[in-house]
Amino acid sequence: MRMKNSITFFLFFLIAILLYALINYYIIRKGFVIFQINTPIKWVWISGVIIMSLSFLLGRWLEKVHPGIISTTLIWVGAFWLAIMVYLLLQFAIIDLIRLSDKLFHFLPPVVYQNTQKTNKILTIIVISLTFIFIGGGYINTWFPKIKQLNITINKNANNLKSLHIVSFSDVHLGTLIGKKKLSQLVKKVNTLQPDIILIPGDIIDEDVGPVIRDGAGPVLKQFKAKYGVYAVTGNHEYMGGVEKAKEFLSYNGITLLNDTAVLVDDSFYLVGREDRSANRFGSNKRKPLNHILENVNKNLPVILLDHQPFKLKQAVKNNIDLQLSGHTHHGQLWPFNFITELIYEIDWGYLKKENTHFYVSGGVGGWGPPIRTVNRPEILNIFIHFN
Fold first, then answer.
1. Cβ neighbours of residue 354 under 8 Å, at least 6 residues apart?
2. pTM above 0.70, yes or no
3. Quick one: pLDDT at residue 78?
């Protein structure tokens, strides 16, 4: 089974690299035409695209063997290029599609072809301006998370509690790109809300925990304050970077991890946490079925589930979960990838109720790859649960 997973991962990685290379080749070729790149600077354009396209992968590799200013710079350059690449690709493809359609239907005015040099200058201004707006605006957007308030009624008796105030956020992705400064901002916002409990449904760590430790983010994590503490589950990125080291780091810094376990809090409600689905591929043990985790849970009390990836929502409904909190999707993070996540998941962002089970899939407070969001704002959930 492990061999099969390794082969599948290798094939996926190979296809992704080939597709990435083809996209950058297309951008190079279209840049010659639209940006009117002539022979003297032709190789500057080619070299620049190649260097930027390789920066992220090289930076990640160098970070593991010799972390420092060079690896950090490469990662930042490469991360921004990932977003720039997306918006150059989209705009070049739209231009090609319009021109191809015009060959068939002849709807463009003759002036477009009478002075191609002037037309390409206009296109250059449009492409560069739109790319700058998307990238600049998306980067600024990541620094201003919104507070999303959610009121839920659970028709169960919670013994000692009439209500519960939860603050939840997912997908912080602490690492080289999202560090102590942004984490401190998050801690301040969360603590200002004065929650009873803090819940984090996965991907606290981006990949390797090394940059997080070197940045001194651990003591900042300890500053979260809540009556019942801070609980979390693993996400796919904890597994990508070495799940045992990530778990050790998070546990040491005040995060209680629920690894396919259920805990009774204040004799009033249950918290259930599932290992990420990646455990089946990268972990030493497969994650447990949900019904096995719930074997000793008294379902007469409210049951809250943390599960990073919002797949198979029917399992939560079938097992009488009252509230499930998930993340993972980022709601696509970069437009138009939100249309893809909407196709993949039953709900890729926001609130849903199925029978007696409430679901909320967070768009996340951080992000993977480019520190840029062009679909939605990062969010912190301020949840008020009322018990009957």
1. 313, 314, 316, 317
2. yes
3. 97
